[in-house]
Design goal:
The chain is built from 18 helices and no strands. By secondary structure, the chain is mainly alpha-helical. Helix 15 crosses helix 18.
């Protein structure tokens, strides 16, 4: 497991990015053949617009190169389901919670190697994807079955996927119903997370990082049930919450234009937003100290801050630029190193 930023980025450039590209290239060929034009457009757009999600998730495979051939196809396939469905729900003509729920059943089936494939498009007009979503689900099932300790993490992966599905349903239904549904959902969970505000819990459920971390843990032989449970609690909610709050932070302008819900808009002012994200960063850093290979996970946290705060979207939003400057104050050298690398990777892709 790489402990320093240089070793980690060496593995990312040499192994992770080429493998992620290879998997996405295979998926693009299948998506290109999707008969329904709307489903084809959303499948291809999700891979071109959100490719960095797969690249970021792929970093977990850098921690166990022996299982690179299992972890990369698994992470890319699950992240691609997530991004594809997000596009379908975001750009959808439908506001039907049953439709969104059934679409996201595909993610629950993907992390259960024994689940039967279903008709995930049953409640929508666009149905013919030429087997694309089924292919993604089966790819995940085949690969989770190859992880030696998967049975010990499966319950926790399933729980995080179920929470992710809940969020996607509640945040895509009719605008007038979104907040009340999200708040009544929060009421069912708030006793478990007294340190969080409702929008922070919702943000945490939108992250796939906890799932990827559990996949990585399951690639180790002899992972105990107790260790699996503690990993889930170490990653969720703070590491996961930080991930998605940063994502929402840079998307504020975009979401305002699109009329989309943004969890960074629920703070009374910008200084409170900075304070809460700062608190969650510190909690995440404290949490990962309890993991074996904690230095790797600290690198993930600094990498998240660098990746999002170096995004070109930051430059065009004066409020977000101010928040970023405050969050980057006293930046450790590690974060500055990742900042340069994030900008370099973006430049190459452009």
């Amino acid at each position: 497991m790489p402990k320093g930023p240089i070793k980690l980025m060496h593995r990312v450039y040499k192994y992770v990015l080429p493998e992620v590209e290879k998997e996405l290239s295979k998926l693009r060929k299948i998506a290109d053949r999707i008969p329904d034009p709307e489903l084809r457009t959303q499948a291809l757009n999700s891979m071109s617009d959100k490719k960095f999600h797969c690249q970021g998730g792929g970093v977990y495979a850098a921690a166990n190169l022996e299982y690179l051939h299992v972890l990369i196809p698994l992470i890319v396939a699950l992240q691609t389901i997530s991004d594809y469905l997000d596009n379908l729900c975001d750009r959808s003509t439908s506001l039907d919670p049953e439709d969104f729920r059934l679409l996201h059943q595909s993610m629950l089936d993907a992390v259960n190697p024994d689940a039967e494939i279903k008709d995930y498009y049953k409640y929508r007009d666009e149905k013919n994807d030429g087997g694309y979503l089924h292919h993604l689900v089966k790819t995940c099932q085949i690969n989770v079955a190859q992880l030696p300790s998967y049975r010990n993490v499966q319950i926790h992966v399933t729980e995080l996927v179920a929470l992710y599905g809940d969020l996607q349903v509640y945040k895509h239904i009719h605008k007038d119903l979104r907040e009340s549904q999200l708040l009544s959902w929060w009421e069912r969970h708030q006793n478990n997370y007294p340190e969080l505000q409702w929008n922070e819990f919702a943000a945490a459920t939108g992250s796939t990082l906890g799932m990827f971390m559990l996949f990585l843990a399951a690639s180790e032989e002899e992972l105990s049930l107790k260790d699996a449970e503690s990993i889930r609690h170490i990653y969720f909610p703070h590491v996961c919450g930080l991930h998605i709050l940063l994502d929402y932070l840079i998307d504020q302008e975009e979401d305002q234009v699109g009329g989309d819900l943004n969890f960074c808009n629920y703070y009374d002012n910008q200084s409170l937003l900075v304070e809460r994200i700062g608190t969650i960063v510190n909690r995440a850093r404290e949490d990962v100290k309890h993991l074996p290979g904690s230095k790797f996970h600290r690198l993930i946290i600094e990498g998240l801050l660098a990746l999002y705060l170096s995004d070109p979207k930051v430059r065009h939003q004066s409020d977000v630029r101010k928040v970023s400057k405050q969050l980057m104050k006293n930046s450790p050298l590690t974060r500055l190193f990742f900042l340069v690398n994030s900008m370099w990777i973006r430049k190459q892709q452009a």
